[in-house]
Amino acid sequence: QVQLVESGGGLVQAGGSLRLSCVVSGRTFSSYAMGWFRQAPGKQREFVAAISWSGDNTFYADSVKGRFTTARNNAKNTVYLQMNSLKTEDTDAYYCARDRGPPWGEVPGTRTYDYDYWGQGTQVTVSS
User: Is pLDDT above 90 for 23?
Assistant: First the structure.
């Protein structure tokens, strides 16, 4: 069974930074690409960032490019999302997810359909 647990959300002023973490249980973590999504109430979940199984390739939504960075530590079964220069429009619940595969993928998906396991989400609130 694969479980994902996010942490690191909170309240921050515009221009500030937060780092989200996602710990994944299960021995297959290092074999799969991982992604980050966000969702506001009443809106569709949208792609934020993704990282290949090796960590060599990362992908970002245009809205966060240059401000957010994702990384992973396969020895710790953890993926990170470093968020800098936060804006009020970044306020959302943030979710990590495991790419559906196949394993050893270097090009993660950007659609929710491309992911099969999800965390419970962590709230990020950016105040003006």
Answer: yes
DSSP string, 10-47: EEEETT--EEEEEEE-STTGGGS-EEEEEE-TTS--EE
| Per-residue model confidence (pLDDT) at position 110 | 96
Burial 59-85 (b: 16+ CB within 10 A, else e): bbbeebeeebbbebeeeebbbbbebee
In the chain, which ranges are E strands? 4-7, 10-13, 18-24, 34-39, 46-51, 58-60, 68-73, 78-83, 92-99, 115-118, 122-127
Tell me the per-residue pLDDT of 65-85, one tens digit each, with 9 for 90 and over.
999 999 999 999 999 999 999
